[in-house]
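Agenda item 2: nicotinamide-adenine-dinucleotide complex prediction
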Amino acid sequence: MTSRSPATSLYDVIVIGAGPAGYVAAIRCAQLGLKTACVDNWSDANNQACPGGTFVNAGCISSMALLESSKIYHLLNSDISAHGIHIDNLAIDLSQMIKRKDSIIAALNHQITELFVKNNINCIHGQGKLIAPGNVEVITKKDSEQYTLNANHIILATGSHSTILPCASIDNESIIDSSQALNLTNIPKRLGIIGAGIIGLELAGIWNRLGSDVILLEAQETFLPTTDQQISHEAHHIFTQQGLDIRLGARVTSAKKGSKKVILEYQDSDGTHTLHLDKLIVAPGREPNTESLAAEEVDLILDENGFVHVDKNCCTTLPGVYAIGDLTALGPMLAHKGLEEGIFVAELIAEKSHPINYDTIPSVIYTSPEIAWVGQTEQALKAIGESYKTGISPFTSSARAHASGKTEGLVKIITHAETDIILGVHIIGSHASELIAEAVLAMEFSASAEDLARTIHAHPSISETLHEAALTIGNRALHIPPEVGMK
Ligand code: NAD
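Presented output:
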Protein backbone atom coordinates (compact mmCIF):
# COMPACT_ATOMS: atom_id res chain seq x y z
CA MET A 1 0.00 0.00 0.00
CA THR A 2 1.64 3.28 -1.10
CA SER A 3 0.73 6.95 -1.01
CA ARG A 4 0.58 8.22 -4.57
CA SER A 5 -0.93 11.00 -6.73
CA PRO A 6 -2.63 12.77 -3.84
CA ALA A 7 -3.23 16.48 -4.02
CA THR A 8 -5.75 17.64 -6.59
CA SER A 9 -7.10 14.31 -7.93
CA LEU A 10 -10.86 14.11 -8.21
CA TYR A 11 -12.08 10.61 -7.50
CA ASP A 12 -15.47 9.12 -8.10
CA VAL A 13 -15.22 7.37 -4.73
CA ILE A 14 -13.00 7.56 -1.64
CA VAL A 15 -13.33 4.75 0.88
CA ILE A 16 -12.06 5.35 4.43
CA GLY A 17 -11.10 2.01 5.99
CA ALA A 18 -9.81 -1.18 4.35
CA GLY A 19 -11.51 -3.83 6.51
CA PRO A 20 -13.85 -6.37 4.86
CA ALA A 21 -16.50 -3.68 4.26
CA GLY A 22 -14.10 -1.03 2.94
CA TYR A 23 -11.74 -3.05 0.75
CA VAL A 24 -14.64 -4.91 -0.88
CA ALA A 25 -16.45 -1.59 -1.51
CA ALA A 26 -13.29 -0.22 -3.15
CA ILE A 27 -12.82 -3.30 -5.36
CA ARG A 28 -16.48 -3.32 -6.46
CA CYS A 29 -16.34 0.43 -7.22
CA ALA A 30 -13.23 -0.13 -9.35
CA GLN A 31 -14.88 -3.08 -11.16
CA LEU A 32 -17.77 -0.77 -12.01
CA GLY A 33 -15.38 1.70 -13.66
CA LEU A 34 -15.30 4.22 -10.83
CA LYS A 35 -12.02 6.00 -10.07
CA THR A 36 -11.40 4.91 -6.51
CA ALA A 37 -9.07 5.64 -3.59
CA CYS A 38 -8.98 3.79 -0.29
CA VAL A 39 -7.37 5.28 2.82
CA ASP A 40 -6.43 2.97 5.71
CA ASN A 41 -4.32 3.63 8.80
CA TRP A 42 -3.53 0.09 10.06
CA SER A 43 0.27 -0.31 10.46
CA ASP A 44 2.54 -3.13 11.57
CA ALA A 45 5.51 -2.76 13.94
CA ASN A 46 7.58 -1.39 11.02
CA ASN A 47 4.95 1.23 10.12
CA GLN A 48 4.00 -0.71 6.98
CA ALA A 49 0.39 -0.80 5.75
CA CYS A 50 -1.72 -3.84 6.68
CA PRO A 51 -5.04 -3.68 4.81
CA GLY A 52 -7.79 -6.01 6.07
CA GLY A 53 -8.84 -4.23 9.26
CA THR A 54 -9.43 -5.88 12.63
CA PHE A 55 -10.92 -8.90 10.84
CA VAL A 56 -7.58 -9.80 9.23
CA ASN A 57 -5.06 -8.20 11.61
CA ALA A 58 -6.39 -8.70 15.12
CA GLY A 59 -9.68 -10.57 15.10
CA CYS A 60 -11.40 -13.33 13.23
CA ILE A 61 -8.51 -14.60 11.08
CA SER A 62 -6.05 -14.65 14.00
CA SER A 63 -8.64 -16.34 16.16
CA MET A 64 -9.34 -18.91 13.46
CA ALA A 65 -5.65 -19.67 12.95
CA LEU A 66 -5.19 -20.30 16.69
CA LEU A 67 -8.49 -22.20 16.84
CA GLU A 68 -7.13 -24.67 14.26
CA SER A 69 -3.79 -25.04 16.10
CA SER A 70 -5.52 -25.58 19.43
CA LYS A 71 -7.89 -28.16 17.90
CA ILE A 72 -4.96 -30.13 16.47
CA TYR A 73 -3.18 -30.06 19.83
CA HIS A 74 -6.33 -31.16 21.64
CA LEU A 75 -6.93 -33.99 19.18
CA LEU A 76 -3.36 -35.24 19.54
CA ASN A 77 -3.42 -34.79 23.31
CA SER A 78 -6.68 -36.51 24.12
CA ASP A 79 -8.82 -37.97 21.34
CA ILE A 80 -6.17 -39.54 19.14
CA SER A 81 -5.78 -42.76 21.12
CA ALA A 82 -9.33 -43.72 20.06
CA HIS A 83 -7.94 -43.91 16.51
CA GLY A 84 -5.27 -46.34 17.70
CA ILE A 85 -2.56 -43.72 17.37
CA HIS A 86 -0.22 -42.96 20.25
CA ILE A 87 2.09 -39.99 20.49
CA ASP A 88 4.82 -39.42 23.05
CA ASN A 89 6.41 -36.14 24.06
CA LEU A 90 3.72 -33.88 22.68
CA ALA A 91 4.59 -30.24 23.35
CA ILE A 92 3.34 -26.78 22.47
CA ASP A 93 5.65 -24.21 20.90
CA LEU A 94 3.46 -21.15 21.41
CA SER A 95 5.79 -18.73 19.66
CA GLN A 96 5.69 -20.93 16.51
CA MET A 97 1.89 -21.08 16.78
CA ILE A 98 1.76 -17.26 16.89
CA LYS A 99 4.30 -17.05 14.03
CA ARG A 100 2.08 -19.28 11.87
CA LYS A 101 -0.88 -17.02 12.67
CA ASP A 102 1.17 -13.91 11.77
CA SER A 103 2.24 -15.43 8.46
CA ILE A 104 -1.42 -16.05 7.56
CA ILE A 105 -2.19 -12.41 8.36
CA ALA A 106 0.77 -11.22 6.25
CA ALA A 107 -0.39 -13.36 3.30
CA LEU A 108 -3.88 -11.83 3.47
CA ASN A 109 -2.47 -8.26 3.80
CA HIS A 110 -0.44 -8.97 0.66
CA GLN A 111 -3.45 -10.43 -1.17
CA ILE A 112 -5.57 -7.33 -0.50
CA THR A 113 -2.71 -5.00 -1.50
CA GLU A 114 -2.34 -6.92 -4.77
CA LEU A 115 -6.08 -6.69 -5.41
CA PHE A 116 -5.90 -2.92 -4.93
CA VAL A 117 -3.01 -2.65 -7.38
CA LYS A 118 -4.60 -4.93 -10.00
CA ASN A 119 -7.88 -3.02 -9.79
CA ASN A 120 -6.14 0.37 -10.13
CA ILE A 121 -7.29 1.54 -6.73
CA ASN A 122 -5.15 4.26 -5.22
CA CYS A 123 -4.45 2.81 -1.79
CA ILE A 124 -3.18 5.32 0.71
CA HIS A 125 -1.57 4.37 4.01
CA GLY A 126 -2.79 7.20 6.20
CA GLN A 127 -5.39 8.65 8.52
CA GLY A 128 -8.53 9.74 6.66
CA LYS A 129 -11.01 12.28 7.96
CA LEU A 130 -14.21 13.57 6.40
CA ILE A 131 -13.84 17.37 6.40
CA ALA A 132 -16.84 18.12 4.16
CA PRO A 133 -19.13 16.14 1.85
CA GLY A 134 -16.80 15.39 -1.07
CA ASN A 135 -13.59 16.15 0.87
CA VAL A 136 -11.31 13.83 2.82
CA GLU A 137 -8.25 15.05 4.67
CA VAL A 138 -5.38 12.57 4.66
CA ILE A 139 -2.33 12.48 6.93
CA THR A 140 0.08 9.87 5.61
CA LYS A 141 1.56 7.32 8.00
CA LYS A 142 5.01 7.34 6.40
CA ASP A 143 5.92 11.03 6.61
CA SER A 144 2.84 12.75 8.11
CA GLU A 145 2.21 14.59 4.86
CA GLN A 146 -1.21 16.26 4.93
CA TYR A 147 -3.45 16.85 1.92
CA THR A 148 -7.07 16.82 0.80
CA LEU A 149 -8.69 14.39 -1.61
CA ASN A 150 -11.92 15.13 -3.45
CA ALA A 151 -14.63 12.71 -4.59
CA ASN A 152 -18.26 12.70 -5.59
CA HIS A 153 -18.92 9.85 -3.14
CA ILE A 154 -17.33 8.94 0.17
CA ILE A 155 -17.80 5.60 1.89
CA LEU A 156 -17.05 5.45 5.63
CA ALA A 157 -15.93 1.98 6.71
CA THR A 158 -13.73 2.43 9.78
CA GLY A 159 -15.06 -0.55 11.75
CA SER A 160 -15.17 -0.94 15.52
CA HIS A 161 -13.02 -1.37 18.64
CA SER A 162 -13.41 -3.26 21.94
CA THR A 163 -15.71 -1.56 24.41
CA ILE A 164 -13.81 -0.04 27.33
CA LEU A 165 -14.95 -1.34 30.72
CA PRO A 166 -14.06 1.30 33.35
CA CYS A 167 -14.00 -1.34 36.12
CA ALA A 168 -11.36 -3.40 34.27
CA SER A 169 -8.81 -1.07 32.67
CA ILE A 170 -6.54 -2.68 30.11
CA ASP A 171 -2.89 -2.64 31.30
CA ASN A 172 -1.59 -4.41 28.16
CA GLU A 173 0.01 -7.08 30.31
CA SER A 174 -2.23 -8.87 32.81
CA ILE A 175 -5.53 -7.29 31.85
CA ILE A 176 -5.83 -7.39 28.09
CA ASP A 177 -8.35 -6.94 25.29
CA SER A 178 -9.46 -9.57 22.79
CA SER A 179 -6.82 -8.62 20.18
CA GLN A 180 -3.98 -8.91 22.70
CA ALA A 181 -5.39 -12.30 23.71
CA LEU A 182 -4.28 -13.56 20.28
CA ASN A 183 -0.62 -12.73 20.95
CA LEU A 184 0.12 -14.28 24.34
CA THR A 185 3.70 -15.36 24.97
CA ASN A 186 2.78 -18.07 27.47
CA ILE A 187 -0.28 -20.10 28.37
CA PRO A 188 -1.93 -18.66 31.48
CA LYS A 189 -2.69 -21.18 34.19
CA ARG A 190 -5.87 -19.47 35.40
CA LEU A 191 -7.52 -17.31 32.76
CA GLY A 192 -10.54 -15.09 33.38
CA ILE A 193 -12.68 -13.69 30.56
CA ILE A 194 -15.24 -10.93 31.05
CA GLY A 195 -18.12 -11.61 28.63
CA ALA A 196 -19.38 -14.99 27.43
CA GLY A 197 -20.40 -13.52 24.07
CA ILE A 198 -19.04 -14.55 20.69
CA ILE A 199 -15.50 -13.26 21.25
CA GLY A 200 -15.29 -14.49 24.86
CA LEU A 201 -16.37 -18.00 23.88
CA GLU A 202 -14.04 -18.24 20.87
CA LEU A 203 -11.05 -17.21 23.00
CA ALA A 204 -12.11 -19.41 25.91
CA GLY A 205 -12.09 -22.50 23.68
CA ILE A 206 -8.63 -21.77 22.26
CA TRP A 207 -6.91 -21.26 25.63
CA ASN A 208 -8.85 -24.05 27.33
CA ARG A 209 -7.67 -26.54 24.68
CA LEU A 210 -4.09 -25.29 25.08
CA GLY A 211 -4.25 -25.98 28.83
CA SER A 212 -5.62 -22.93 30.69
CA ASP A 213 -8.30 -23.20 33.36
CA VAL A 214 -10.84 -20.74 31.96
CA ILE A 215 -13.52 -18.90 33.93
CA LEU A 216 -16.06 -16.90 31.92
CA LEU A 217 -17.93 -14.15 33.76
CA GLU A 218 -21.16 -13.18 32.05
CA ALA A 219 -23.45 -10.45 33.41
CA GLN A 220 -26.57 -11.81 31.73
CA GLU A 221 -28.55 -14.61 33.36
CA THR A 222 -29.17 -16.35 30.03
CA PHE A 223 -26.36 -18.01 28.09
CA LEU A 224 -26.18 -16.74 24.47
CA PRO A 225 -29.59 -15.05 24.76
CA THR A 226 -30.01 -14.22 21.07
CA THR A 227 -29.25 -17.78 19.94
CA ASP A 228 -32.09 -20.32 19.74
CA GLN A 229 -32.40 -21.48 23.35
CA GLN A 230 -32.29 -25.18 22.51
CA ILE A 231 -28.94 -24.61 20.81
CA SER A 232 -27.60 -22.42 23.63
CA HIS A 233 -28.57 -25.09 26.22
CA GLU A 234 -26.74 -27.69 24.16
CA ALA A 235 -23.74 -25.35 23.79
CA HIS A 236 -23.66 -24.65 27.53
CA HIS A 237 -23.69 -28.38 28.22
CA ILE A 238 -20.92 -29.17 25.71
CA PHE A 239 -18.66 -26.27 26.74
CA THR A 240 -19.07 -27.09 30.44
CA GLN A 241 -18.16 -30.72 29.69
CA GLN A 242 -15.05 -29.41 27.92
CA GLY A 243 -14.02 -27.74 31.16
CA LEU A 244 -15.15 -24.12 30.72
CA ASP A 245 -16.35 -22.59 33.99
CA ILE A 246 -19.22 -20.39 32.77
CA ARG A 247 -20.66 -18.16 35.50
CA LEU A 248 -23.92 -16.51 34.46
CA GLY A 249 -25.49 -13.50 36.21
CA ALA A 250 -21.94 -12.55 37.21
CA ARG A 251 -21.35 -8.80 36.86
CA VAL A 252 -17.71 -7.82 37.22
CA THR A 253 -17.35 -4.76 39.43
CA SER A 254 -13.56 -4.42 39.64
CA ALA A 255 -10.35 -5.96 38.30
CA LYS A 256 -6.85 -4.81 39.27
CA LYS A 257 -3.36 -6.18 39.04
CA GLY A 258 -2.13 -7.22 42.52
CA SER A 259 1.49 -8.08 43.32
CA LYS A 260 1.37 -11.25 41.18
CA LYS A 261 -2.21 -11.99 40.17
CA VAL A 262 -5.17 -10.10 38.80
CA ILE A 263 -7.70 -9.63 41.59
CA LEU A 264 -11.23 -9.59 40.22
CA GLU A 265 -14.49 -8.99 42.03
CA TYR A 266 -17.91 -9.86 40.70
CA GLN A 267 -21.44 -9.88 42.01
CA ASP A 268 -24.14 -12.45 41.46
CA SER A 269 -27.35 -13.40 43.29
CA ASP A 270 -25.24 -14.97 46.09
CA GLY A 271 -23.29 -11.78 46.78
CA THR A 272 -19.75 -10.59 46.06
CA HIS A 273 -16.97 -12.97 45.01
CA THR A 274 -13.21 -12.56 44.54
CA LEU A 275 -11.04 -14.40 42.01
CA HIS A 276 -7.26 -14.50 41.62
CA LEU A 277 -6.24 -14.89 38.00
CA ASP A 278 -3.02 -15.09 36.00
CA LYS A 279 -4.54 -13.23 33.07
CA LEU A 280 -7.82 -11.45 32.37
CA ILE A 281 -9.32 -10.90 28.90
CA VAL A 282 -11.91 -8.14 28.68
CA ALA A 283 -14.48 -8.92 25.95
CA PRO A 284 -17.66 -7.00 26.81
CA GLY A 285 -18.66 -6.08 23.23
CA ARG A 286 -17.54 -3.67 20.48
CA GLU A 287 -18.22 -0.02 19.59
CA PRO A 288 -18.03 1.83 16.26
CA ASN A 289 -14.83 3.75 15.39
CA THR A 290 -16.25 7.25 15.00
CA GLU A 291 -13.63 9.22 16.90
CA SER A 292 -11.77 11.56 14.50
CA LEU A 293 -13.78 10.14 11.59
CA ALA A 294 -15.37 13.49 10.70
CA ALA A 295 -14.57 17.10 11.51
CA GLU A 296 -16.99 18.59 14.03
CA GLU A 297 -18.34 21.19 11.60
CA VAL A 298 -19.37 18.42 9.18
CA ASP A 299 -22.12 17.35 11.58
CA LEU A 300 -22.09 13.63 10.87
CA ILE A 301 -25.15 12.41 12.78
CA LEU A 302 -24.71 9.49 15.20
CA ASP A 303 -27.53 7.55 16.87
CA GLU A 304 -28.02 7.26 20.64
CA ASN A 305 -25.55 4.32 20.81
CA GLY A 306 -22.81 6.10 18.88
CA PHE A 307 -23.37 4.34 15.52
CA VAL A 308 -23.36 6.47 12.35
CA HIS A 309 -27.00 7.18 11.51
CA VAL A 310 -27.92 5.76 8.09
CA ASP A 311 -31.09 4.99 6.16
CA LYS A 312 -31.81 1.54 4.72
CA ASN A 313 -29.46 2.31 1.81
CA CYS A 314 -26.45 3.01 4.07
CA CYS A 315 -26.78 6.75 3.25
CA THR A 316 -25.81 9.15 6.05
CA THR A 317 -27.60 12.49 6.37
CA LEU A 318 -24.76 14.11 4.34
CA PRO A 319 -25.01 14.17 0.52
CA GLY A 320 -22.83 11.54 -1.18
CA VAL A 321 -21.58 10.12 2.15
CA TYR A 322 -22.31 6.47 3.04
CA ALA A 323 -21.45 4.35 6.09
CA ILE A 324 -21.11 0.56 6.08
CA GLY A 325 -20.06 -2.38 8.29
CA ASP A 326 -19.61 -2.12 12.06
CA LEU A 327 -20.02 1.68 11.90
CA THR A 328 -23.80 1.41 11.60
CA ALA A 329 -26.57 -0.30 13.55
CA LEU A 330 -28.05 -1.64 10.30
CA GLY A 331 -27.81 -5.43 10.86
CA PRO A 332 -25.36 -7.28 13.10
CA MET A 333 -21.63 -6.49 13.56
CA LEU A 334 -20.43 -9.22 11.22
CA ALA A 335 -17.71 -9.17 8.56
CA HIS A 336 -19.97 -10.65 5.86
CA LYS A 337 -22.66 -8.05 6.59
CA GLY A 338 -20.09 -5.28 6.04
CA LEU A 339 -18.79 -6.98 2.93
CA GLU A 340 -22.29 -7.18 1.40
CA GLU A 341 -22.91 -3.52 2.26
CA GLY A 342 -19.65 -2.64 0.50
CA ILE A 343 -20.92 -4.30 -2.69
CA PHE A 344 -24.37 -2.77 -2.24
CA VAL A 345 -23.12 0.83 -1.86
CA ALA A 346 -20.68 0.51 -4.77
CA GLU A 347 -23.55 -0.71 -6.97
CA LEU A 348 -25.84 2.02 -5.59
CA ILE A 349 -23.28 4.63 -6.65
CA ALA A 350 -23.07 3.00 -10.09
CA GLU A 351 -26.89 2.83 -10.17
CA LYS A 352 -26.97 -0.98 -10.35
CA SER A 353 -27.89 -1.96 -6.83
CA HIS A 354 -29.83 -4.93 -5.48
CA PRO A 355 -31.11 -4.61 -1.90
CA ILE A 356 -29.53 -6.66 0.89
CA ASN A 357 -31.76 -9.22 2.57
CA TYR A 358 -30.88 -8.58 6.21
CA ASP A 359 -33.22 -11.45 7.25
CA THR A 360 -30.93 -14.12 5.81
CA ILE A 361 -27.58 -13.05 7.22
CA PRO A 362 -26.01 -16.11 8.86
CA SER A 363 -24.31 -15.89 12.26
CA VAL A 364 -21.44 -18.14 13.26
CA ILE A 365 -19.60 -18.67 16.52
CA TYR A 366 -16.26 -20.31 15.76
CA THR A 367 -16.08 -22.51 18.81
CA SER A 368 -15.49 -26.25 18.74
CA PRO A 369 -18.06 -27.45 17.90
CA GLU A 370 -19.22 -24.46 15.87
CA ILE A 371 -22.60 -22.75 16.29
CA ALA A 372 -24.35 -21.27 13.25
CA TRP A 373 -27.81 -20.00 12.52
CA VAL A 374 -29.98 -18.03 10.12
CA GLY A 375 -33.47 -16.62 10.47
CA GLN A 376 -35.83 -16.75 13.41
CA THR A 377 -35.34 -18.50 16.73
CA GLU A 378 -38.07 -20.58 18.34
CA GLN A 379 -38.32 -18.15 21.28
CA ALA A 380 -38.78 -15.17 18.91
CA LEU A 381 -41.57 -16.95 17.02
CA LYS A 382 -43.29 -17.91 20.28
CA ALA A 383 -43.10 -14.27 21.42
CA ILE A 384 -44.99 -13.06 18.32
CA GLY A 385 -47.49 -15.93 18.45
CA GLU A 386 -46.46 -17.39 15.08
CA SER A 387 -47.47 -21.01 14.48
CA TYR A 388 -44.48 -23.14 13.54
CA LYS A 389 -43.09 -26.66 13.40
CA THR A 390 -39.61 -27.82 14.29
CA GLY A 391 -37.56 -30.68 12.92
CA ILE A 392 -34.48 -31.77 14.83
CA SER A 393 -31.73 -34.12 13.82
CA PRO A 394 -28.82 -34.91 16.13
CA PHE A 395 -25.49 -35.50 14.38
CA THR A 396 -25.64 -39.05 15.76
CA SER A 397 -28.05 -39.70 12.85
CA SER A 398 -25.18 -39.24 10.38
CA ALA A 399 -22.93 -42.20 9.54
CA ARG A 400 -20.28 -39.74 8.35
CA ALA A 401 -20.34 -37.94 11.72
CA HIS A 402 -19.77 -41.30 13.43
CA ALA A 403 -16.84 -42.12 11.14
CA SER A 404 -15.32 -38.69 11.86
CA GLY A 405 -15.93 -38.98 15.59
CA LYS A 406 -17.94 -35.72 15.46
CA THR A 407 -21.37 -36.72 16.71
CA GLU A 408 -21.88 -33.82 19.13
CA GLY A 409 -24.71 -31.38 18.47
CA LEU A 410 -27.79 -31.11 16.30
CA VAL A 411 -29.55 -29.38 13.41
CA LYS A 412 -32.90 -27.72 14.05
CA ILE A 413 -35.15 -26.45 11.29
CA ILE A 414 -38.13 -24.24 12.03
CA THR A 415 -40.89 -23.91 9.44
CA HIS A 416 -44.18 -22.09 9.17
CA ALA A 417 -46.89 -24.49 10.41
CA GLU A 418 -49.17 -23.94 7.40
CA THR A 419 -46.89 -23.06 4.47
CA ASP A 420 -43.88 -25.24 5.45
CA ILE A 421 -41.60 -22.31 4.42
CA ILE A 422 -38.33 -22.37 6.37
CA LEU A 423 -38.24 -19.61 8.99
CA GLY A 424 -34.95 -20.48 10.70
CA VAL A 425 -32.16 -23.04 10.84
CA HIS A 426 -29.95 -23.53 13.90
CA ILE A 427 -26.91 -25.76 14.10
CA ILE A 428 -24.40 -26.73 16.74
CA GLY A 429 -21.84 -29.21 15.52
CA SER A 430 -18.80 -29.85 13.41
CA HIS A 431 -18.75 -27.78 10.15
CA ALA A 432 -21.80 -25.73 11.23
CA SER A 433 -20.24 -22.66 9.55
CA GLU A 434 -20.24 -24.51 6.21
CA LEU A 435 -23.56 -26.32 6.63
CA ILE A 436 -25.42 -23.07 7.29
CA ALA A 437 -24.76 -21.95 3.68
CA GLU A 438 -27.31 -24.50 2.42
CA ALA A 439 -29.88 -23.13 4.85
CA VAL A 440 -29.18 -19.53 3.78
CA LEU A 441 -29.60 -20.47 0.12
CA ALA A 442 -32.83 -22.33 0.90
CA MET A 443 -34.22 -19.31 2.75
CA GLU A 444 -33.09 -16.90 -0.02
CA PHE A 445 -35.29 -18.92 -2.38
CA SER A 446 -38.13 -19.18 0.18
CA ALA A 447 -37.72 -22.96 0.19
CA SER A 448 -39.91 -25.24 2.27
CA ALA A 449 -38.75 -28.12 4.46
CA GLU A 450 -40.24 -30.37 1.75
CA ASP A 451 -37.87 -28.77 -0.82
CA LEU A 452 -34.91 -29.62 1.42
CA ALA A 453 -36.25 -33.10 2.09
CA ARG A 454 -36.56 -33.70 -1.70
CA THR A 455 -32.99 -32.45 -2.34
CA ILE A 456 -30.55 -35.33 -2.72
CA HIS A 457 -27.61 -35.12 -0.33
CA ALA A 458 -24.43 -37.18 -0.70
CA HIS A 459 -24.39 -40.27 1.49
CA PRO A 460 -22.50 -40.39 3.74
CA SER A 461 -21.97 -36.70 4.45
CA ILE A 462 -22.35 -34.36 7.40
CA SER A 463 -24.86 -32.31 5.35
CA GLU A 464 -27.29 -35.23 5.49
CA THR A 465 -28.11 -34.08 9.02
CA LEU A 466 -29.83 -31.03 7.50
CA HIS A 467 -31.73 -33.33 5.14
CA GLU A 468 -32.72 -35.56 8.06
CA ALA A 469 -33.97 -32.55 10.07
CA ALA A 470 -36.11 -31.53 7.06
CA LEU A 471 -37.49 -35.08 6.85
CA THR A 472 -38.52 -35.00 10.50
CA ILE A 473 -40.84 -32.07 9.78
CA GLY A 474 -42.84 -34.36 7.52
CA ASN A 475 -42.58 -37.04 10.23
CA ARG A 476 -40.53 -39.34 8.00
CA ALA A 477 -37.01 -39.27 9.40
CA LEU A 478 -35.07 -42.33 8.35
CA HIS A 479 -32.20 -42.48 10.82
CA ILE A 480 -33.77 -41.24 14.04
CA PRO A 481 -36.77 -42.40 16.03
CA PRO A 482 -39.81 -40.10 15.51
CA GLU A 483 -39.99 -38.86 19.11
CA VAL A 484 -36.46 -37.36 18.91
CA GLY A 485 -36.89 -35.36 15.72
CA MET A 486 -40.50 -34.19 15.74
CA LYS A 487 -42.16 -31.77 18.11
P1 NAD B 1 -21.06 -9.65 22.73
O1 NAD B 1 -22.00 -8.52 22.90
O2 NAD B 1 -21.42 -10.79 21.87
O3 NAD B 1 -20.67 -10.25 24.19
C1 NAD B 1 -20.17 -9.48 25.26
C2 NAD B 1 -20.76 -10.02 26.55
O4 NAD B 1 -20.12 -9.37 27.65
C3 NAD B 1 -22.24 -9.76 26.69
O5 NAD B 1 -22.93 -10.97 26.82
C4 NAD B 1 -22.33 -8.89 27.96
O6 NAD B 1 -23.46 -9.21 28.73
C5 NAD B 1 -21.04 -9.24 28.71
N1 NAD B 1 -20.60 -8.20 29.65
C6 NAD B 1 -20.49 -6.87 29.43
N2 NAD B 1 -20.05 -6.25 30.56
C7 NAD B 1 -19.87 -7.19 31.51
C8 NAD B 1 -19.43 -7.17 32.89
N3 NAD B 1 -19.07 -6.05 33.55
N4 NAD B 1 -19.38 -8.35 33.57
C9 NAD B 1 -19.72 -9.52 32.96
N5 NAD B 1 -20.15 -9.57 31.67
C10 NAD B 1 -20.21 -8.43 30.94
O7 NAD B 1 -19.70 -8.97 22.23
P2 NAD B 1 -18.37 -9.63 21.69
O8 NAD B 1 -18.30 -11.06 21.99
O9 NAD B 1 -17.28 -8.75 22.24
O10 NAD B 1 -18.50 -9.42 20.13
C11 NAD B 1 -18.64 -8.09 19.60
C12 NAD B 1 -19.23 -8.09 18.21
O11 NAD B 1 -18.29 -8.62 17.28
C13 NAD B 1 -20.49 -8.91 18.14
O12 NAD B 1 -21.48 -8.16 17.49
C14 NAD B 1 -20.09 -10.09 17.32
O13 NAD B 1 -21.14 -10.51 16.47
C15 NAD B 1 -18.91 -9.59 16.49
N6 NAD B 1 -17.98 -10.70 16.24
C16 NAD B 1 -18.40 -11.74 15.47
C17 NAD B 1 -17.56 -12.81 15.28
C18 NAD B 1 -18.02 -13.94 14.42
O14 NAD B 1 -18.76 -13.73 13.48
N7 NAD B 1 -17.64 -15.18 14.73
C19 NAD B 1 -16.30 -12.88 15.87
C20 NAD B 1 -15.92 -11.80 16.65
C21 NAD B 1 -16.77 -10.72 16.83
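Discussion summary: The chain has three domains: 10-58+99-162+287-359, 175-284, 369-485.
Owner for follow-up: CH.
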